[in-house]
Amino acid sequence: MQEALAASFENVTKVFSRGLFGRGGVVALRDVSLSILSGEVFGLVGLNRSGKTILVKTLLSICRPTSGRIGRLGRDWRDRSTLARVGYVHESQAFPPYLTAARLLQYYGALSRQPASRIRRRGKELLERVGLADRSREAIGRFSKGMLQRLALAQSLVNDPELLVLDEPSEGMDLAARRLFHDVIRQRKKQGRSAILVSHDLSDIERLCDRVAVLRGGTVAFVGSVAQLKNEFGADQSSPAGDSSFEEALEPFYAGARH
Fold first, then answer.
1. What is the pLDDT of residue 111?
2. Which of 62, 103, 107, 166 is the residue whose CA sits 20 to 30 A from 148?
3. Sorting pLDDT into bands at 50, 70 and 90, what band is 1?
4. Other C-beta atoms within 10 Å of 162: how many?
């Protein structure tokens, strides 16, 4: 029996044209093929401009692929109805600074077409969960970077998504917020929910992800578990999560590609 997929990419290529007549171009993704299983936490790692963010943006219909096939929650990526079942944390938050945290969650909840009463209840629960209940009526423009990251996590969960896409979600988080973030991902995994985690923080990837894909130059250089990556490239598998062995195992992919 074939396992259900949260997301799939089949020979996906993305080329950004340049010049007045679109001649030439920049290849951001080249023949990328990946499958993310339902209930799986899947990591994407790689240097800047390796294609990680562009890949998730094609999945979310933010960016149109040049060629290839993309599946989202069992449907084609062009079926926008499935977006109501997806949560997204963008790498750079740009929330309207005049909105309050409570209003922001109501706004995003409305986009997923949930009843207003459920949105209010869910928003209140999430702000409590991320430690912002006492700041719920305060303008977002007064929030610190860490508070914005907590709010972004709450925003991504307001529709109780089946698939959560997280692009650098822990940047700027303090230790308590990072523990909260880890707890949320693990709890959702127990509920059979899926997540895609894009991060330069290798400790987050190692602690949370079932499998990881290494992107280099817009192509997939490796797919497998962190343990398999360490084993194949000579790092010590017995080392605890968060030490340097994961980073050492990635060095062969990064060598010669640093800017």
1. 81
2. 62
3. very low
4. 21
